[in-house]
TrEMBL record:
Keyword terms of this UniProt record: Amino-acid transport, Cell membrane, Membrane, Transmembrane, Transmembrane helix, Transport
GO biological process, one term: amino acid transport
Species the sequence originates in: Lactiplantibacillus mudanjiangensis
Coiled coil: none
Protein's membrane topology: Multi-pass membrane protein
Protein name (record): ABC transporter permease [Lactobacillus paraplantarum]
Length: 492
């Protein structure tokens, strides 16, 4: 055999080996991906969404019950049907959707999300299912003044943080003053109160707001978007190849039949009319009642667990050995040195990676752990304020350390710290609003939903303020009643 022929044969053999190796890797990757199998095994497809973005996803008050509807929800139902499973919709703040996906809280994000290059680094995206432009939403009175995006130079222009629109303002309106907000409802409120000159939203959403609010008008923004990020896609966890392929097949069928325009958008439009038929706050009273119930539940459990854990931390800090005292001190300092919102997200997304906890449970745990640190400091300060002569007298009478603490020190401590305890309890009630970021339907979360559903910005805020005031006023009266009993030597 000639040397040239030998070389050709060797090259062919090497190429065949490399090809077989590549095929084996592809087969291994395909078989190791269990994303579709897991969804089918549990029988549910969990869709993460932020329901304050009509007509994509929003809530309606149907027969007194809150219901998440919209174009994306209809699409999610079709995908679940094609997969042979049931759709479960989980509501979260938009900023919390990506952490929820990467930690396994949801199987997919279907929330009008654009597949930007930055997002593609952390999650996978399906094919584009809907393409639209970007619109400027302005007050009708300012329509002539802000006829195009160039006229917004030097003006405040707003968008939801973490969205494509936010980045487009940054890139294509450098002369404007960018303002980011966490919810669509807050954006519209800022616009209507002239805090910002314009809001950038997707055309479908901007048109929906303009149609249902005569004081607003939608203008073509003429923003330029790259092919890679134009339109909306479904976000999936990295490596979910089999689930992505199955969803893409479903999206291809939806596109082939034109169901988004023929069915889903029309269904969303009907629900929008339901919302705007009666926008009185009394009509949405069940929303506020439900929010109040969750707020009180979180506050009461947080006060109880925080008080017990706070007392335990205090006892460790004043009477335990050095290692336990150091640990208790470190805990208090760490909790007081980090924001409550971050703690809530850590409990839900961080611990939730190992233990599946609901949003409500995570919120209660975070509130309880946070309040314990502050209550521990209040109790410790009260114990230190008790005259040392009291403990010396108790010791001379033969009382043990525990008996002295129980019968001498703590009763006097309670009298000293009662006003501070009351103030902390009131603050805790207001701090429950933080759990709305992980989708707990407490008062502030329900406030945002009512704003999005009714296109009214100020009225829902007024209702929530009154409810919070009544709760805190009643708690203040109760605390003062028991304060008078303590000061007169009566038991609580």
């Amino acid at each position: 055999m000639k040397k040239g022929q030998l070389g050709v044969w060797l090259l062919g053999i090497v190429s065949l080996i490399m090809l077989m190796g590549g095929l084996n890797l592809s087969v291994h990757a395909a078989t190791s991906d269990q994303s579709l199998a897991r969804v089918k095994a549990k029988g549910t497809l969990v869709m993460g969404t932020s329901p304050n973005y009509p007509p994509y996803e929003f809530q309606v008050n149907e027969h007194g019950q809150a219901k998440i509807v919209g174009m994306d929800v209809e699409l999610g139902k079709q995908i679940a049907h094609d997969l042979g499973v049931k759709l479960v919709v989980k509501k979260l703040a938009f900023d919390s959707l990506l952490p929820a996906l990467t930690t396994g809280k949801v199987d997919m994000i279907l929330s009008g999300m654009s597949p930007t290059p930055a997002r593609r680094k952390s999650v996978d995206f399906t094919n584009i299912y809907y393409t639209e432009g970007e619109a400027l939403l302005v007050n009708r009175a300012d329509q002539a003044k802000y006829a195009n995006k160039k006229a917004l130079a030097g003006q405040k222009v707003a968008a939801e943080t973490g969205t494509l629109q936010y980045n487009l303002i940054k890139q294509q309106l450098p002369a404007a003053k960018l303002t980011g907000m966490s919810s669509a409802a807050n954006l519209i409120l800022a616009l209507k109160t002239h805090k910002v000159a314009a809001v950038v939203k997707g055309t479908a959403s901007a048109t929906a707001y303009a149609k249902n609010d005569p004081s607003l008008v939608a203008i073509n923004g003429h923003f330029k978007t790259s092919t890679a990020q134009a339109g909306n896609a479904i976000a999936l966890k990295k490596g979910s190849t089999s689930l992505k392929q199955a969803i893409n097949r479903s999206l291809a069928k939806v596109k082939r039949h034109g169901w988004i325009q023929k069915r889903y958008l029309k269904t969303a439009g009907k629900y929008l009319k339901v919302n705007t038929a009666n926008t009185s706050m009394w009509h949405y009273r069940d929303y506020f009642i439900k929010g109040l119930q969750y707020t009180l539940l979180i506050a009461v459990v947080g006060i109880i667990t925080g008080s017990i854990l706070g007392l335990l931390l205090t006892l460790l800090r004043v009477s335990a050995g050095r290692p336990l005292r150091w640990l208790a001190t470190a805990y208090v300092e760490f909790v007081r040195g980090t924001p409550l919102m971050v703690q809530i997200m850590f409990v839900y997304f961080g611990i939730g990676m190992f233990v599946d906890v609901s949003a409500l449970t995570a919120g209660i745990i975070a509130i309880g752990l946070n309040s314990a640190a502050y209550l521990s400091e209040i109790i410790r300060g009260g114990i230190q304020a008790v005259d040392k002569g009291q403990t010396e007298a108790a010791a001379s009478l033969g009382l043990s350390q525990w008996a002295t603490l129980r019968y001498v020190v703590l009763p006097q401590t309670l009298k000293i710290i009662w006003p501070s305890l009351g103030n902390q309890f009131i603050n805790l009630i207001k701090d429950t609003s933080m759990v709305s970021i992980i989708g707990v339907t407490e008062l502030i979360y329900q406030l945002g939903i009512v704003q999005a559903d009714t296109y009214r910005g100020v009225a829902p805020i007024g209702v929530a303020m009154v409810i919070y005031f009544v709760i805190c006023w009643l708690l203040t009266r109760v605390l003062r009643y028991y304060e008078r009993r303590i000061n007169h030597g009566q038991t609580v």
